[in-house]
Amino acid sequence: MSFNIALSGLNAAQKDLDVTSNNIANVNTTGFKESRAEFVDVYAASLLSSGKTKVGDGVLTADVAQQFSQGSIQFTNNALDLAITGNGFFATVPELGSLETSYTRAGQFKLNQDNFIVNSQGGHLLGFPVNPDGTSASVSLSTAEPIRIPTSSGAPQQSSEVDIRMNLPAGDAYISGAPGNFDQTDPLTFNHSTSVTVFDSLGDSHIMTYYFVKDDPSTNPNEWNVFAAIDGTMVDLVADPGLNNPIGGNASGPLSARPLPSPPYAAADRGVVGGKLQFDSSGDFINQIPSLANGGFITNPFGAGILSNGADPTQTVKIDFNLDVLAPNPNEPTQFASNFEVTSLQQDGLAVGRLTGIDIGTDGLVRATYSNGTSEPLSRIAMVNFANEQGLTQVGNTGWKESITSGEALAGEGGSGTFGTINSSALEQSNVNLTTELIDLISAQRNFQANSRALEVDNQLNQTILQIR
After folding, report:
1. Residues 6+ apart with CB under 8 A from 109
2. pTM for the model
3. Which of 1, 144, 388, 425 lies at a CB distance of 3.0 to 4.6 Å from 126, suitable for a disulfide?
4. pLDDT digits (tens, 9 = 90+) for 180-203
């Protein structure tokens, strides 16, 4: 019997050595969780035996339990390196369409040849589908799909509105003959100009220039004429697309204003329809002609003769001056006794964009950014937790699978409920404490030596018995 007890002690000490050696070997393995050998004594007694004199039958390895304590975080320069702070696992599948889900804390991800996010073993990282505003469409693991980074460029968007704020100098001199002699090629025929880049439906850029001409103060005080050009070609400013009339007519017409001199606003040997900005004596913007219900001027469709690349020829651009008829507004133009100053000039068009980067938030939202300044939510990294982490089945490569004792996988978003947060450009290191493991190694070695000695003593006793004559 004593042989068996000593032998069980040797086996237990060997198991302890194996576990400790495995921990030490994986001290630099990303996402590795240390194990602990847990032992129980063996005690068996028959119904009629004396329990008071029963010694025991040795030791038995009850479990090699994983310890899921948090590992330290190491920061990197790769946005696809991911670390979980708190509870949870990443979910991966070995290939597209597979339902064989594995779970890991190792976040060393990269892109494969098809632009899917995968780990070193080729496992595809799963994510929840998201809405255009970035909210999750579903947080069920059954709807999670491998995350793919798009290879296409960001789509262009044609400009439909330009928001402009500026100050027109009240002390500017009137240019004799203005606005009838306006010519965009002659700086002596206008007071000021400014430009903004706008985009057509194909994402091609065009320069839109605005010209401001002070009206005759003797007849129209505190009034300025406005003209617009696209790539040097003048375009008409109208109240509604399709209207191509010079400013004139009766007060009830959509282009109501005073009659123009003859010839009308000359530019490139043709009449040009302009607009008018009116201010009161305190410099407040009070009216614009032609009037537009929601403020601003609209360029007549400028595609014909300007766009030659196949873009939408019916494109118009609204020039919004943010008219507020109730009171002065900081978003409106002003006419003060100071220099010409443009304080805001923004448009809503976009050029064609190329993928410039991937941003991953602490909640797992994966967002693609493009060179045209736009960003697009792609997916939300699926987080998974279990009622009993130590019940997970180890499958190698720092991965685990669901088992009966672990309970079912519970999916959710990073940072919600009991789920931890996700750190991009970071990796979770092994939670192995090397100093502790070396001490445990010495302890296991001593235990092995002690049990070897017990086995040796048992052998000597047997030899003595066998030599009795």
Report:
1. 80, 81, 82, 117, 118, 119, 125
2. 0.70
3. 144
4. 888 889 999 999 999 999 999 999
